[in-house]
Amino acid sequence: MADSRTDPDSSPPVPRVLRIAVPTPLRRLFDYRPAGRPPVGGWRPGLRVKIPFGRRHLVGIVMECAASSELPAHQLKPITERLDDEPLPADWLWLCQFTARYYQHSLGDTLQHALPGPLRQGRPLEARIRERWQLNTREALALDALGRAPRQRELVQLLAQHRHGMITSAITAQGYTRAQLQGLLDKALITRSSEPLMASEGWSGALLAEPSLPLNREQAVALAALHEGLDRFHPCLLHGVTGSGKTEVYLQLIEGVLGQGRQALVLVPEIGLTPQTLSRFRKRFRAPVVALHSGLTDLERLDAWEAARSGRAPIVIGTRSAIFTPLARPGVIIVDEEHDGSFKQQDGLRYHARDLAMARAHRDGVPILLGSATPSLETLAQARSGRYRHLRLTQRPSRHAPAKLELVDLRGRLRQGGLVPPAIDAIRQALKAEGQVLVFINRRGFSPSLACHQCGWIAECRHCDSRMTLHRQPPRLVCHHCEHQTPQPDACPGCGSADLRPLGAGTERTEETLTTLFPDVPVYRIDRDSTRRKEAFDQLLTEIRRGEPSLLVGTQMLAKGHHLPHVTLVVVVNADAGLYASDFRALEQSAQLLVQVAGRAGRADRAGRVLVQTLHPDDPNLRLLADDGYDALAYQMLEERRVAGLPPYRYLALTRFEATREEDARQMAEAAGDAVREWLATRQLPVHCLGPVPAPMERRQNRYHLQLMLSSEKRSALHEAGAWLVGWLESSATRRVRWSLDIDPMTLS
Ligand code: ADP
Ligand code: ZN
Ligand code: ZN
Asked: Which residues bind Zn(2+) 1 (predicted)?
């Protein structure tokens, strides 16, 4: 609140012009005139204001205070209202500016994206308050004073059990009313106090709620190295095989940071923020752990944001967007499973949370720890060059090393539900030995295509260049690219034959086969279809964790992130998708996924086996992965990337164009290509421009997609070219064509 007693003469001078970031796609600031009473500390960047914009009123953020504008004075509109006295946090503002600049995105849009909903809508930035009620006097005295008011007597007895008082919601949850509280308050038997909604309740003194584990030698070496860099920017890679105890190292690192009175920010993949992960953090620390996930309401998100900003939240853990959480006293950033694709946002503001985390740690001068069993080639290259400290964990605390991949030849063998006889035999053995089996298949539905055996017709999507997936539960054809659905045809639309056959297996088909083959064993299918309701997923996991012999058929939803202690055999139905794909990252991503999936086998007290079915058992990359492991393949892929001039040795910026009419998209993309080439020639920048070329799936949802690629060995040159191209597109693109720029694209689709 503004202090009305402030002497107006001592206020800082009011600037003539406020330059404001407005939530629009336009990459510029907008000039306004300040109006109303200036804030106590004067006009500063980071203050939110309400402004007239076109016919609407929007919430914008002051970015600069200037003495003059390019607009003539009479065109300069005044702001409607000032919303803040204090600016938004400086570290947050810096990160947004960095993000907008790096990803060539509108600053107003970026700020909007990074702000909790209620703040976007103009709600005041202050902690929501809750009330706490506390008995004022000894229980017996209070009861004496009350006479015969049974509910109030009970309420007194309840409060007497809680020395630190109780919050309103805890009291009303037990059936008491506000009126009863008010009654006791009026008699002065209890007191009422206010506190922020997310107070770090009961946390003082001892940090730990349970003792930390004694570390093994490798963990101890890693932790010592991390402790030594606590007071500076210190980028580290914790490169440890699955189950090697990376999380234990995170926990003890955080302990050190909290001990200094500072905060820890932990980023995990979307699929990794499981109740198990959270409970590991919550069990360890007495300090509150604030989790940012998609299940929060807007107000809960604001509470978490505020608690982090004010420093009341010592540990913040969240998925991608949690990188935009301000911290009062940053102490460390940890990115778990740093290679995971979900850290990159694939639409709108296409940022990579791991890369932003690196920039942020650098700016704040704090250590950053990237953890993975299968580091991205980007991170591995940095570690190899010595820019990141390379910490390794090669041993598992449990007795068993991660299982080796055993390749199983699919060629010329009869398949049932995607599985060949050796795999089925192995499943039988594992079940006999009372183990659980995880069958990994990265395709939902019954079968990835439906074909006519007479004429060769294949069910295709009317709106995309793709095939329809056959589902049986319930029966229908679904396009997994646009969600278009049609009933399952009874006869071939081409020749009328009724001989329509599913080609290949998806989760539903494998589930069906396994149910037939092993009628006495429960089969649990876990994919997006079977777990649309959240409780369904939790229920399945509870069943599975009871440890009875059972078959789990799942997509990466199950294969990543979840701890499945009773699995002794993993079968990968088909490992070939990434081997010959056109996308240059496909092999890397598929190797990472294979290793993660394999890591589910033999986590507890039993050794595990991993069978990988393939049509290419002699593929040199797959062999290398199976025989020598991920690191060997990764270093070889790095060499290939260097030779081919691909990331991480060259930087990429991909411009995507799309339109309803193919020629609109093509003309725009070609004009952009011509323009940028001409500009590059005059500037002599070391940037290559490739294309335009059709996107790998050219027609998607009835729209045509093309792309234009910029690449350079010099990041600064690439950014200069990207910025110029964006400027050109902003002024030249027609409404019929949608375009976007993707800096450091993760896929070329
Ligand atoms: P990661 O994060 O590398 O996959 P985890 O931290 O989940 O590995 O550790 C795997 C298992 O080993 C967990 O059950 C964990 O409690 C246990 N563990 C980790 N470190 C130790 C240790 N130093 N001593 C004993 N058990 C450990
Ligand atoms: Zn036919
Ligand atoms: Zn489609």
From this structure: 452, 455, 492, 495
Among 641, 663, 696, where does a domain finish? 641
pLDDT by residue (tens digit) across 197-223?
A: 665 544 566 788 899 999 999 999 999
Could you tell me the distance, in angstroms and rounded to a whole number, from the CA of residue 579 to the centre of ligand 2?
32
Same domain, yes or no: 69 and 162? no
Which DSSP category does 5 fall into? T
Closest by Cα among 110, 92, 128 to 25: 110
236 is in an annotated binding site: no
Instruction: Compute the distance between CA of residue 389 and CA of residue 8 in angstroms, rounded to an integer.
Output: 54
Average pLDDT, whole number, for the chain? 90
Per DSSP, what are the bridge partners of residue 652?
711
Whole-structure pTM value = 0.89
CA 556 to each of CA 239, 269, 506, 528: distance values in angstroms, whole numbers, following the listed order: 21, 12, 13, 10
Task: Please give the order of strands across the beta sheet that includes 166-167.
Answer: 166-167, 129-135, 190-196
- Does 290 lie in the same domain as 178? no
224 and 329 within one domain: yes
Mutational pocket test of ligand 1: of 238, 248, 394, 545, the residue with most ligand atoms within 8 Å of the beta carbon: 248
585-632 confidence digits (pLDDT tens) = 999 999 999 999 888 887 666 778 999 999 999 999 999 999 999 999
- The answer to whether residue 534 is domain-embedded is yes
User: Are residues 96 and 67 both part of a single domain?
Assistant: yes
Q: Which domain holds residue 30?
A: 5-120
Helices (H), 579-661: 586-598, 620-628, 630-644
The alpha carbon of 603 and the centre of ligand 1 are apart by a number of angstroms equal to 10
Helix (H, G, I), strand (E, B) or coil at 707: strand
Joined tokens for residue 379? 């991170």
247 and 358 in a common domain: yes
Tell me if 464 is assigned to a ligand binding site. yes
Neighbours of 694 (CB within 10 A): 17
Q: Is residue 474 part of a domain?
A: no
Backbone angles phi, psi at 652, to 5 degrees: -120, 150
222/315 same-domain check: yes
For position 46, which CATH number holds?
A: 3.40.1440.60
Cβ–Cβ contacts within 10 Å for residue 515, how many? 16
Residue at 499 is within a domain:
no
215 lines ligand 1 (CB under 6 A): yes
To the question of whether residue 492 is assigned a binding role by annotation, the answer is yes
In terms of domains, do 636 and 723 share one?
Answer: no
Q: How crowded is the C-beta side of 59, counted as CA atoms within 13 Å? A: 18
The dihedral sign for the CA sequence 337, 339, 342, 347:
positive
In Å, how far are 21, 219, 273, 361 from 293, measured between CA atoms? 27, 29, 8, 22
The total number of structural domains in the chain stands at 5
For residue 304, is it within any domain? yes
Q: What span, in angstroms and rounded, lies between the C-alpha atoms of 207 and 337? A: 26
